[in-house]
Design goal:
The protein is an all-alpha fold and 171 residues long. The chain is built from nine helices and no strands.
Length: 171
């Protein structure tokens, strides 16, 4: 019984809280009409007008004949881009044919005859120098150098390393 009474009480409280909110909801159609009566902007009408303008613009763009406009411009001594394009393509073709006809080996020999830098010779010399340096490095006995440095009272890094390892082991 208590459950039923409690449920009815909760239902009554909820209906009391919700009822005023339902009546307070604004009627937007009514508010809109009031605004229109006050000479407010009619957005529906503006929207229709703008849609009509877009349709007119679209129709006008579709009726433009760009080929005709182009011919008119050419008649007015405007730049003829088709002609320019053809000329540039012809120039590129001529340059390409000219480059294909160049004998770069012959040009290289001519430059060498003119006392130009011989890069092949320079490259060989540098490669030979690298080979000599490599052979010299291979001929160095680093253990012997190390012993000589130790004889000259240089720092013995092996001994320092052992000492540090012993310190770390103690710590």
């Amino acid at each position: 019984m208590k459950r039923i009474a409690l449920a009815l009480t909760a239902l009554t409280a909820a209906s009391i809280a919700i009822a005023p909110a339902a009546y307070a909801a604004p009627d937007f159609d009514e508010l809109r009409q009031e605004n229109l009566d006050k000479d407010a902007i009619n957005f529906d009408e503006l929207r229709r007008e703008n849609l009509d303008k877009d349709a007119v613009t679209e129709i006008q763009v579709k009726t433009l004949n760009f080929d005709e406009l182009r011919r008119e411009n050419l008649d007015k001594d405007a730049v003829n881009f088709d002609e320019l394009r053809r000329e540039n393509l012809d120039k590129d073709a001529a340059v390409e044919v000219y480059v294909k006809g160049v004998d770069f080996d012959e040009l290289r020999r001519e430059n060498l005859d003119k006392d130009a830098v011989n890069f092949d010779e320079l490259r060989r010399e540098n490669l030979d120098k690298d080979a000599v340096v490599e052979l010299q490095a291979k001929g160095v006995d680093f253990d012997q150098l190390r012993r000589e440095n130790l004889d000259k009272d240089a720092v013995d890094f092996d001994e320092l390393r052992r000492e540090n390892l012993e310190k770390d082991a103690i710590a």
